[in-house]
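Question: Send over one sample?
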Amino acid sequence: MLKKLNFILCLALLAINIVSVGVHAKTYKIATDVQANGTAGRLLSEFAQNVQRRTNERVKFKIFHGGVLGDQLQYFQHVQRGVVDICLINSASLESVIPAIGVMNMPYLFRSAEEYKEVMTNGDFRRALFDFSTKHRFAFLGFLSSDFRSIYSTKSIRTIADLKGQRLRTISSQTYIDMLTRFGAVPSVLPFGELYSAMQQGVVDGAEGGIAGLYEARFSEIAKYVVLTEHTRLTDFVLSSVQFQNQISPGDLKIVNQEFEKISLKSIAYADAKESEYKQRAMDESGVQFFEVDKSPLMKAVEPIYQKALEDEEKSKLLNAILTIEKRKL
């Protein structure tokens, strides 16, 4: 009789647990323009799986890869409206709607991976970002790091002087355009998907971008020269809607934040490892030549970009916060 009562009690508790999970469980939308099998795609999937497991499936995610829900600016607007819960948007795209974020795209703001990590994980920096997010109806969840960006070309470039007059593809960011102009190059804004054919046809001579991207996108088949300017480290921010922050319980939100912090840190190590691996592959498989350069003339050339930022009230707040963390004076 006692065993039967215990069995019935266990069934009742199980039923209560199932109902409880069913009532509170919800699937949230994540929008990206990256592919599922790419670095960012895999890291986002890992984050989603870890959160689902730790919350006992109270919080689940459906990830829409490859721009299914639109381009970055389109689904960012959906996040602001609460139609999409989380999205991935790079600092260049975000700069077009929040100009102060352009500080993140400034050349030589981060001079090493260690400096980048120190800033991106700093509480004061996160609080500075919080000011921007509240004004624009979203919240910063975390970030995914890419490797340092350099300059590659189909033409022979080996020194800083060789950059003069080079027609280089860049992303749609005024900061990047100003930077390349000060490097002596001729910036050309093109969609990433058009770059291979543009280099093939001579529309542009090359581009600025990451070494991993050079190899993964097969640009190394035609761009055989790389000057290691290492001028910026583009950041993919992961943003959430205000509604998402308010809908889930404080305990589950804590788990979400903890899991994304792990993924953010993992992305830095992963980006640096891939940069080294793909650099070697580009040399071995495609005969790409890499040239180290003295970056100090380039740093000197972009000083006016810093001075202009310091004259802007919004940009100066974020820039000064970063420079303080880096213990750096201009």
